[in-house]
Amino acid sequence: MMNRMIHRRDASAASVTPGETADPQGAGGAASAGATPKRRKGDREGIALALGGGAARGWAHIGVIRALEEADIPVSMVAGTSIGALVGGCYLAGKLDDLEAFARSLTRRGMFRFLDFHLGGAGLIRGMRLSDRLTDSLHGVAIEDLSRPFVAVATDSRSGHEVWLDSGSLVLAMRASYALPGVFGPVDCAGRRLLDGALVNPVPANVCRTMEERMVVAVNLSHDLYGRAAVVRLSARDCDPSSPDWRERRNPEGRARRENFGIVRSMVDAFNIIQDRISRSRLAGDPPDLSLNPRVREIGLSEFNRAAEAIDLGYEAASARISEIRQIAREISGDRD
């Protein structure tokens, strides 16, 4: 199947179908022939959601959606990156209740049941246990089967191109979108090796724009991680362990214990910084109509057992701006009438 380019403002974004190079009749195959056709671009009522990446902080997306449902604000489409693709896909598949129950049930010890460590591979975790859990829940659902448009954003590891997965296996699209480099292995698709979409587009508001949606609401989980960009000047003398007062300068606040900077922590910290800086740049260049910024900074990227807190924070962030969402929607509708 020839890949078609659908992002006219950025030729690096390609739309591909997950599973098209694998067994076309299997779980990663193309959509069923009876898929319901989508309505034309731009004629859908409601808001388009751009759900950003953020690992465990992404449970906040569930709270955002709950607040929108409670306020009877319809969602016309979802574009998701990483955990945003996972939550958004389950929502459009009618499985948000199941996902929320699963998230709330996770404990620190229970999380390890889904971590199938695999030394020597492209990632520390194969990710098949989580994938199998999703497959059991979604029963081979294809993106075309969803009631509203859905796009999962991934990254082509060879070319660096942004990839939009808008058809085919929903589970494979999710897996590709959350394939954090070095942690989860990449997903092979149409000759491409796909990694986490947050490498190129952490909060995919531009995807919704390209689909000609009337109103775009983004959910940015890294908004309060680092604050404004700044330059810090230091002396390299402070990096020299042979200096007599090196230990004091290394720990000026007198912290009782040393932080553990293992390989995974270093990778996650680096990914956090990349995601924050890219999202700031992308959203400044192609801003949504409104950005929701749940205050999830204190939830660690791997603390999936803190779902209840994250969901509450997402709910609070969206609930506080319901009237603003309605006002902007009215203004946009008036401008286009």
Automatic annotation (TrEMBL):
Active site annotation, chain numbering: 82 (nucleophile), 196 (proton acceptor)
Pfam families tied to this protein: Patatin
Motif GXSXG per record, residues: 80-84
Keywords for the protein's UniProt record, in alphabetical order: Hydrolase, Lipid degradation, Lipid metabolism
Gene3D superfamilies xrefs: Cytosolic phospholipase A2 catalytic domain (3.40.1090.10)
Disordered: annotated segments: 1-41
GO BP term, example: lipid catabolic process
GO MF: hydrolase activity
Residues annotated as domain PNPLA: 49-209
Motif stretch (DGA/G): 196-198
PANTHER family reported for this sequence: NEUROPATHY TARGET ESTERASE/SWISS CHEESE D.MELANOGASTER (PTHR14226), NTE FAMILY PROTEIN RSSA (PTHR14226:SF76)
Protein known as: NTE family protein rssA
Organism annotation: Fulvimarina endophytica
Species lineage: Bacteria, Pseudomonadati, Pseudomonadota, Alphaproteobacteria, Hyphomicrobiales
